[in-house]
Design brief:
The protein has 228 residues and is α/β, with parallel strands linked by helices. It has one domain: TIM Barrel. Helix content is 41%, strand content 14%. The longest helix has 17 residues, at 122-138. It is found in: Cytoplasm. Pathway: Cofactor biosynthesis; (R)-pantothenate biosynthesis; (R)-pantoate from 3-methyl-2-oxobutanoate: step 1/2. Its main location: cytoplasm. It catalyses: (6R)-5,10-methylene-5,6,7,8-tetrahydrofolate + 3-methyl-2-oxobutanoate + H2O = 2-dehydropantoate + (6S)-5,6,7,8-tetrahydrofolate.
Length: 228
Amino acid sequence: MDVILVGDSASNVMAGNVTTLPITLDQMIYHAKSVVRGVKRAMVVVDMPFGSYQGNELEGLASAIRIMKESHADALKLEGGEEIIGTVKRILSAGIPIMGHLGLMPQSINKYGTYTVRAKDDAEAEKLIRDARLLEEAGCFAIVLEKIPASLSARVASELTIPIIGIGAGGDVDGQVLVIQDMLGMNNGFRPRFLRRYADLHTIMTEAISHYVSDVKTCDFPNEKEQY
């Protein structure tokens, strides 16, 4: 594994929230610190949570510095293009690497109203391309493209020189990312087209817990070999 993203999707898969918006800066730092302590060689990138960087460049810089100092992560990821480019430049000027994020941006779900595929119309697609170029020119080292047409992702990847990472963005990009709880099948109810499950931990865990409960109720656990 080359890169590990500590995503604000922890709001959904760890805290049970409907969106990524409720997760706080303190909570992201907590999750990031836990991941960094377990990593040996991979680059650790941390999502800046909603409200920690939008609209105020100095507040964004302060949030970014705090994440880096307290978590010991390697880089940060921010959602948005032209609207946040000032904050991106300000954070980069402090020597903090940034990965961009375009396409479906979950922190903007209340504006979208749905998690459907983004940038299907020409105007939104052209804006995405402009934003990608702005992020590259500003100094971002990579960009995540989420849930957009594969042909658009391929175009962005061919026109930019920095790595393009896809999630629901087709195969003609430089890398892929999935939420580990989704990829391992821990969340049985989330089944988007782009998700390939490599395990069914939901079934394994459910059966194991049921077996444990049964053993306790029938006094089979603990047995004599499992006592002191």
